[in-house]
Amino acid sequence: MKKYSVAVVGIGLVGSRILQVLRERHFPASSVKVLARTARTETVDGVDYPVVPASAEAFDGADIALFAGTEGARGASQLYGWEAVRRGCVVIDNGDDFRMDPRVPLVIPEVNPEALRASQGLISNPNCSTIQMVVALAPLHRAARIRRIVVTTFQSVSGTGSAAVAELESQVRDAPAGKPAHPQQYPHPIFGNVIPQVSTLKEIYPGYYGEEIKMIRETRKILSEPELAVTATCTRVPVALAHSEAINVEFERKLSADRAREILAASPGVIVVDDPAKSRYPMPLDAAGRDEVFVGRIREDPSRANTLDLWCVADNIRKGAATNAIQIAEKMIEMKLLKGG
Question: Which of 122, 129, 183, 239 is deepest in the core (most CB within 10 A)?
């Protein structure tokens, strides 16, 4: 088996999880180099990783680079992404800098692996909320063709980064003592609250925040449906890990709830948990630490023909970021698109 020299750019929540998942999945790495702003040693799951300051030259000799950019850590792929490609490295970028770039495939391996064949050396990981929704909806789209998607997200604080997780933990400790919250990561306290804002307002769709626009545009690109009707409301909730989504999806033809369950149960990367009479449905506590997308509460919308409601939960740091990036690399190996030693 070929082995591959891997560079991981960033060592925050996503970068640490990339290192963990590489080991868990026994990725065929001949070496793993960690790049960040400053030199130091970081320990992940009991393994010490020397961290090398990022530079263009640091990508020399690397076969693949996994950029771990998140909402809280951007910029590395702008500085080094295409330069790494020029130096012979395949780049898989978790940040949002190139997702809508026509040169760059936006890939979920369970959904559109064929897009990898058009790669010019840089591949984008979709937004975490987009990934889990499209993993759940793509099999249904193939069966009955989606006409419209209405989604509301309930996103964990880990999507913002480790500082936001610490902020939630601090507010959890301080609230019972009556101490006032001093929010820094969000415009309002997150504990005991739901904040209907993820990212900032954008001119492209007035009144929509950036995360909502990502879900609209990325879903269209991944499904190769540039005119697909999609609307989103994204919220931040006081949950540490795993995003949840309430999805209302209209199809061109009838798709029963029972048939949707059958399709999803047979779909790669999906686990159906759907027995509402016994209070069985996906929850963040169940999805945290897992790589699958969990789907439940599948039901026919009585207010609109050919329309289903469903509930979708996934670990936003694993499947929504680290694992999807590594699955892209694995798929490239399988498709013989990645050179190694």
Answer: 129
Q: How many CB atoms lie within 10 A of CB 152?
A: 16
Residue 74 has pLDDT above 60, yes or no: no
Beta strands per DSSP E along the chain: 4-9, 29-36, 40-44, 47-53, 64-67, 90-93, 122-124, 146-155, 229-236, 243-251, 270-272, 293-300, 307-314
Q: Would you place residue 72 in the very low, low, confident or very high pLDDT band (cuts 50, 70, 90)?
A: very low
Q: Which residues are catalytic?
A: 128, 243
Beta carbons of 94 and 325 less than 8 angstroms apart:
yes
| 253 CB-contact burial (10 Å; exposed 0-12 / middle 13-18 / buried 19+) | exposed
pLDDT (average), residues 83-96 = 97
Task: Write the CB contacts of 166 (distance below 8 Å, at least 6 apart in sequence).
Answer: none
pLDDT at 73 over 50: no
Give the tens place of pLDDT for each residue, 19-70. 999 999 999 999 999 999 999 999 999 999 999 999 999 999 999 999 997 5
Which residue, chain included where needed, has tokens 């739901």?
Answer: 194
CA quadruple 239, 181, 73, 282: dihedral, nearest 10: 10
Joined tokens for residue 339: 């050179």
